[in-house]
């Protein structure tokens, strides 16, 4: 069976998906643009929560994968893919509603402007003579030429900014490459230094063992010398070279004839 954490997160995701389904059904019935916009913002927040919960579900699934059997892991992965698919469908639905809402606002704005412009042009044309109409047309052409010139300047400025940005990005990329190479060199140096430190540690430990052994040998020899001096007739150290008592001289006895 799956862990309790997975089951709890799955339940929370199911609740959010259910709330999204109800929210979009409610959105279809709302006609006011402002209310539709607020409803879309609420649904967007719920989709963010759902995305965060799916990430938590995936992380918990990876952490408990070794505890679960293959069949449970397969089933949990299928559930995760299904939840991701549902969330993506709601994201696409939200984009469609947002686009429709923006198009309606643009159409409303442009339609109002065109109506006023057409009405104004009709009033002007009805009150103008032929010469006035020609002068007004020339003025509009001059204004259009000026607007085109301004647009060209904006385009050239945009191109210059884009070129400078590309050069800056290239320089930053090269700098990042140098930084990465330096970090690799530092990492290699630290690795070699760690190896040298370990080798020195082993050598120091070996030297300490040898010194300790020599110290024990010296202490032992000193102890034997002290014991021999204190008790020269000790038989347990009689056979040690240099410390054993001198062998008494044997004299041959000759019988006199």
UniProtKB/TrEMBL annotation:
TM ranges: 210-230
GO molecular function: SNAP receptor activity; SNARE binding
Positions of the T-SNARE coiled-coil homology domain: 138-200
PROSITE patterns in the record: T_SNARE
A Gene Ontology term for the protein's cellular component: Golgi apparatus
InterPro entries: NPSN/SNAP25-like_N_SNARE, T_SNARE_dom
Keyword Phosphoprotein applies: no
Subcellular location, record wording: Membrane
Topology of this chain in the membrane: Single-pass type IV membrane protein
GO biological process: protein transport; vesicle fusion
Keyword line: Coiled coil, Membrane, Protein transport, Transmembrane, Transmembrane helix, Transport
Domain of life: Eukaryota
SUPFAM superfamilies with a match to the protein in the record: SNARE fusion complex
PANTHER family listed in its UniProt record: NOVEL PLANT SNARE 11, VESICLE TRANSPORT V-SNARE PROTEIN VTI1-RELATED
Family: Belongs to the novel plant SNARE family.
This protein's name: t-SNARE coiled-coil homology domain-containing protein
Organism: Genlisea aurea
């Amino acid at each position: 069976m799956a862990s309790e954490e997975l089951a709890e997160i799955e339940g929370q995701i199911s609740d959010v998906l259910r709330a999204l389904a109800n929210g979009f059904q409610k959105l279809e019935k709302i006609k006011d643009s402002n209310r539709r916009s607020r409803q879309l913002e609420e649904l967007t927040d719920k989709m963010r929560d759902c995305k965060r919960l799916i990430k938590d579900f995936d992380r918990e699934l990876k952490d408990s994968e070794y505890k679960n059997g293959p069949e449970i892991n397969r089933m949990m992965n299928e559930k995760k893919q299904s939840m991701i698919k549902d969330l993506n469908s709601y994201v696409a639905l939200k984009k469609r509603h947002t686009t429709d809402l923006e198009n309606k606002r643009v159409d409303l704005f442009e339609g109002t402007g065109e109506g006023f412009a057409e009405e104004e042009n009709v009033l002007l044309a009805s009150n103008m003579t032929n010469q006035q109409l020609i002068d007004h047309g020339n003025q509009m052409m001059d204004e259009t030429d000026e607007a085109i010139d301004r647009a060209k300047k904006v385009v050239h400025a945009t191109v210059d900014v884009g070129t400078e940005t590309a050069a800056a990005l290239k320089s930053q990329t090269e700098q990042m490459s140098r930084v990465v190479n330096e970090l690799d060199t530092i990492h290699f140096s630290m690795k070699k230094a760690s190896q040298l430190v370990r080798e020195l540690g082993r050598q120091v430990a070996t030297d300490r063992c040898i010194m300790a052994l020599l110290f024990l040998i010296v202490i032992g020899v000193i102890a034997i010398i002290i014991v021999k001096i204190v008790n020269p007739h000790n038989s347990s150290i009689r056979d040690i070279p240099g410390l054993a008592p001198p062998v008494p001289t044997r004299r041959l006895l000759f019988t006199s004839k």
